[in-house]
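Postdoc handover notes: sequence design on the structure in folder B. Input tokens:
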């Protein structure tokens, strides 16, 4: 479902698309190795109001190209389409994609608007909804855009139907709704589509068992938050220095001296290597190359070391760039969103921002260690408000955590209700903060903020 936030929806006469604003969120797509390889862009909009010229609007929907006639004012739905396209070209969306391709649901109006050709062909995949009206004009337009190297995705497929059959020849990718498609049909459907050379995405994977089943069936891409759920398996995300990181976090929580930090870090050569990289980064330049561990600690600072350590808890045990690690990216994005969002609320200071960051970064730490989330939080000696926010969604920390989880799902109606309790935050501002947080998390060499590339 595609939606857009409109500043002035009642003004549809001589207005242009500059009066319309789109709100965006993103949802990760993983490859067969469990690494980030793309994002679906979720877009928000309220229903357009019924206007006096609704009959003309209906005619325009049937023939979107009619809006291009000289002297004819664009209909509301066409203005909305242009607002979405304009929004997708903005820097905040590009930054949040962190170099990965975007999958975005497109309407007929978007497809027929020539401004869609401003979107780079190598960065955007156009998803075709199963409810889209398919006629000769649409097929002709798809063929034209395909000739300009745009790529198409059949979205939310549950079973073959007439719309599926007509659009399949022009689609490079087929996205199958794994939760709604017939389990008996899936093996045959995937086999036929793979034989036809289609790339397959399994949609709606929120359990590890679903991912494993889709993986066994030969799906190429996977969408859902299965990777952020606690698992009974001990084979995933095993990293040698993880317990060393936990010990370091416990030490950092007690305001240690440089000598204490130095002694703890010396027990963990891998951590020393990472810290030396961090201290010698351009973001922490001190005028000369840092050569000793004590210099690295002093150059980096305990607060930055703490954030760096918190995020490294989520790093994959394999040699993986941080910007491609989905669990670390999700933790970093949540943490940064929480920090940015609480700063917009009344009477929020540095302590509240730090608590918000911790709430986001540890909100699914059970996905790393397994077992009880409550017991892991107790080991980390987190404050009561942080634990209450994570475990029971209590207080402002709990509200913001619920909000970022809704944003991750593109649950716009839920965000609308939450904003009534998070004033002056609005849904539009929450979406912007989410994009900013995603861009922050996705930049590998952001060591001045506590995040860097790890290469063991």
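Designed sequence:
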């Amino acid at each position: 479902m595609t939606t857009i936030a409109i500043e002035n929806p009642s003004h549809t006469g001589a207005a242009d698309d500059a009066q319309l604003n789109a709100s965006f969120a993103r949802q990760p797509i993983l490859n067969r190795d469990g690494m980030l390889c793309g994002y679906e862009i979720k877009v928000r909009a309220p229903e357009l109001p019924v206007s006096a010229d609704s009959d003309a609007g209906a005619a325009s929907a049937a023939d979107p190209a009619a809006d291009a006639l000289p002297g004819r004012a664009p209909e509301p739905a066409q203005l909305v389409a242009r607002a979405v396209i304009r929004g997708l070209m903005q820097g905040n969306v590009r930054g949040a994609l962190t170099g990965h391709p975007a999958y975005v649901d497109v309407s007929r109006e978007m497809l027929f608007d020539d401004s869609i050709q401003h979107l780079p062909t190598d960065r955007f995949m156009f998803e075709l909804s199963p409810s889209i009206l398919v006629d000769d004009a649409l097929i002709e337009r798809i063929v034209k855009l395909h000739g300009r190297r745009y790529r198409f995705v059949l979205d939310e497929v549950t079973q073959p139907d007439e719309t599926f059959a007509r659009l399949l020849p022009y689609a490079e990718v087929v996205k199958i709704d794994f939760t709604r498609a017939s389990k008996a049909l899936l093996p045959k459907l995937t086999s036929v589509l793979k034989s036809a050379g289609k790339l397959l995405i399994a949609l709606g994977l929120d359990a590890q068992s679903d991912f494993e089943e889709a993986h066994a069936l030969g799906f190429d891409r996977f969408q859902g938050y299965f990777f952020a759920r606690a698992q009974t398996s001990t084979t995933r995300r095993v990293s040698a220095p993880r317990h060393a990181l936990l010990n370091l976090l416990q030490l950092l929580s007690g305001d240690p001296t440089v000598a204490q930090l130095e002694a703890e870090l010396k027990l963990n050569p891998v951590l020393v290597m990472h810290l030396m990289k961090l201290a010698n980064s351009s973001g922490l330049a001190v005028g000369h190359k840092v050569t000793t561990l004590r210099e690295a600690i002093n150059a980096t600072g305990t607060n930055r070391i703490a954030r760096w350590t918190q995020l490294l808890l989520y790093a994959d045990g394999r040699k993986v760039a941080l910007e491609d690690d989905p669990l670390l990216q999700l933790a970093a994005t949540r943490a940064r969103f929480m920090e940015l969002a609480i700063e917009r609320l009344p009477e929020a200071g540095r302590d509240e921002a730090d608590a918000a960051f911790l709430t986001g970064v540890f909100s699914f730490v059970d996905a790393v260690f397994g077992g009880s989330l409550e017991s892991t939080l107790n080991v980390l000696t987190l404050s009561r408000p942080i634990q209450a926010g994570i475990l029971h969604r209590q207080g402002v920390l709990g509200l913001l955590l619920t909000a970022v989880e809704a944003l991750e799902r593109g649950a716009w109606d839920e965000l609308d209700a939450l904003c009534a309790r998070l004033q002056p935050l609005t849904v539009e501002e929450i979406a912007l903060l989410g994009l900013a947080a995603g861009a922050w998390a996705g930049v590998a060499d952001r060591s001045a903020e506590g995040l860097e590339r790890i290469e063991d």
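Context for whoever picks this up: The longest helix spans residues 326-342. Don't rerun without checking with the PI first.
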